[in-house]
């Protein structure tokens, strides 16, 4: 099944797209799961891996450097990996070189991680207001200092960086961020083609990904934004020349998308998306993985939101949403799933349906005078606990 926008997009030709090379890691197809808070935990990553035979790169939800160094119990749980995870990839966030460097050292030397991604794209108000997330690239020397601390501590472990176009249309930072990453030894950069002011509204600007690719020539450039179908990934790479894609909201409630991505990069038409009965089976498999990883109470809390994403656009399901939002046990979930008709085909509208994020814009909150001294390499908040939060958007 394809949407109209991808009706004429051909599958990949033999040799058209090279594997993504991140130091010793080779990712084929060149597809990365975007870190998303409260979403890309070990159970969800495991589910995505199963649909794609573990071929893509699956990055954990973000952890904060300070909380990790201080052995915060929730942070350590978020950072943990599942038994089926052959490649340990984690996203790290921080605003101070000391805590970022120490967290990196522990992750590499004690946890044996294979890849570290750095989040400098988060647009959440309380993060940018402390000078973190999307605010950091507005001070290129500060960004370079933070990157240097992580790359040096990581040694041979590849470090990548994810960021946005900039603060808003008047303060674009992505070219400076890409050049800093290249200069400081990062192995790849990923650009979400929206500004922090845009949040997730409108359409991602793929032309900015092409512009970054022309500016950053010695390391891979990955594109992020509006990859809802497997064929979107091919279109993005062909239009921009980027070296790989980062998939975020498009896989919410659709972990089989990674199997479809593998197919089109292999030159094959993907299998038809699952009917309602198969979606229900996947929901229950997801719930069981969450129960094994957390416990039933926390797992079912997660499934309240995930079930809505899985069932998006299926006819007649909307009336069940209030009941799904009140479930408290696995049996509650099974009872609702058992009430669904078995042979309803996957709705085409669900392919590009917006999940999770709203379409609003924002005025980006920054520390007072932050843009008046963009040449500074000092974080605006000198207490590392400020601006380092335990739960954030993936950017």
Describe the structure.
By secondary structure, the protein is α/β, with parallel strands linked by helices. It folds into 2 domains: 20-269, Aldolase class I (TIM Barrel); 276-345, Non-ribosomal Peptide Synthetase Peptidyl Carrier Protein, Chain A. Helices cover 36% and strands 12% of the residues. The strands form 3 sheets. A 9-stranded parallel beta sheet has the order 4-3-13-12-11-8-7-6-5. Helix 1 (42-52) runs parallel beside helix 10, helix 1 (42-52) crosses helix 11 (276-293) and helix 9 crosses helix 10 (257-265).
Short description:
The chain contains 14 helices and 13 strands. With 395 residues, it is of the alpha/beta class. The longest helix is centred in the C-terminal third of the chain and has 18 residues.
């Amino acid at each position: 099944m394809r949407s109209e926008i991808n009706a004429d997009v051909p599958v990949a030709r033999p040799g058209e797209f090279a594997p993504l090379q991140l130091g010793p890691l080779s990712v084929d197809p060149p597809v990365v799961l975007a870190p998303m808070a409260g979403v890309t935990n070990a159970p969800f990553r495991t589910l995505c891996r199963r649909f794609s035979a573990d071929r893509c790169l699956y990055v954990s939800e973000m952890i904060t450097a300070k909380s990790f160094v201080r052995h915060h119990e929730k942070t350590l749980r978020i950072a943990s990996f599942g038994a089926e995870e052959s490649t340990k990839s984690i996203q790290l966030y921080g605003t101070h070189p000391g805590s970022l460097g120490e967290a990196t050292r522990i992750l590499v030397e004690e946890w044996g991680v294979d890849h570290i991604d750095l989040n400098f794209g988060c647009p959440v108000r309380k993060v940018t207001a402390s000078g973190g997330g999307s605010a950091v690239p507005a001070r290129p020397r500060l960004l370079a200092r933070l990157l240097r601390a992580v790359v040096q501590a990581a040694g041979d472990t590849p470090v990548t960086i994810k960021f946005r176009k900039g603060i808003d249309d008047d303060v674009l930072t992505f070219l400076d961020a890409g050049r800093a990453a290249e200069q400081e030894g990062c192995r790849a950069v990923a650009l979400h083609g929206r500004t922090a002011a845009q949040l997730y509204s409108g359409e991602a600007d793929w032309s900015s990904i092409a512009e970054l690719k022309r500016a950053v020539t010695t390391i891979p450039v990955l594109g992020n934004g509006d990859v809802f179908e497997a064929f979107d990934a091919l279109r993005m790479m062909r239009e921009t020349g980027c070296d790989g894609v980062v998939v975020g909201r498009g896989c919410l409630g659709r972990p089989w998308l990674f199997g479809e991505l593998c197919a089109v990069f292999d030159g094959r038409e993907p299998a038809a998306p699952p009917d309602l009965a198969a979606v229900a089976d996947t929901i229950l498999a997801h719930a069981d993985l969450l129960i094994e990883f957390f416990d039933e109470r926390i797992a079912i809390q997660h499934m309240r939101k995930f079930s809505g994403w899985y069932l998006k656009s299926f006819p007649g399901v909307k009336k069940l949403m209030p009941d799904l939002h009140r479930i408290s046990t696995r049996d509650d979930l099974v009872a609702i799933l058992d009430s669904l008709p078995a042979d309803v085909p996957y709705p085409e509208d669900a392919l590009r349906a917006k999940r999770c994020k709203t379409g609003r814009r924002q005025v980006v909150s920054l520390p007072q005078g932050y843009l008046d001294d963009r040449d500074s390499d000092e974080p605006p908040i000198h207490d590392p606990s400020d601006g380092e939060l335990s739960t954030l958007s993936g950017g």
